[in-house]
Amino acid sequence: MITIVGNLKGGAGKSTVAFNLAIWLQSQQKKVLCYDFDPQLTLSDVAGVREEEGFLPPLTVSSRYQKDKVAQYDEILIDVGTANMTAMKRAIAMADRILIPVAPSQADVWSTQRFLYLISSTIRNEKPPQISVFINRADTHKGIRETAETEEALRTLPGIQILKQRLCQRTAYRRSFSEGLAVFELNPRSKAAEELMQLAYTFYYGESQT
Fold this sequence. Notes:
The protein is of the alpha/beta class. The chain has one domain: Rossmann fold, CATH 3.40.50. Helices cover 44% and strands 18% of the residues. It has nine helices and eight strands. Helix 5 links the parallel strand 5 and strand 6. The mean pLDDT is 92.
């Protein structure tokens, strides 16, 4: 299965999400290949850190698509942004699933609307990809309304699945990422690890982890 983790707007956290999902899939005994089509090559960089530190399993990341390799893996994750629009459209055309992290702001809702239009205008397959959206970098303070308001606005958009699991704005994501570790590897009992694994279970298995 080919999954894009993408968004038109920068700062949505797509590379962090793609990395954590890739390591989680490997913990589920899946053979995973990542493609990094973002010119910033953030996913490639963190995979390099992971390799340098000797963390296992290593993460295979390529910046050049090779069709013959796809069949060798259980899951393909693609990290791509608008800086490489050609690669973005090619990835959309062959994707089975598209996962869109959305930060809690009106600007991110507008960006998601434009991304959905790009997807619909690019799809050439008779069977469209599954499009899932979730709130990333959610506010942890209950008195702040932006997160709930953003989710409410996303519910007005057609043709998408909104995942109830949110990833909150936590230093654990930045810290673990800089060390080449998934959040559940750095601290398996952290809130960040719990919410990431709940998101992964829901996205890939359609249910929460019990």
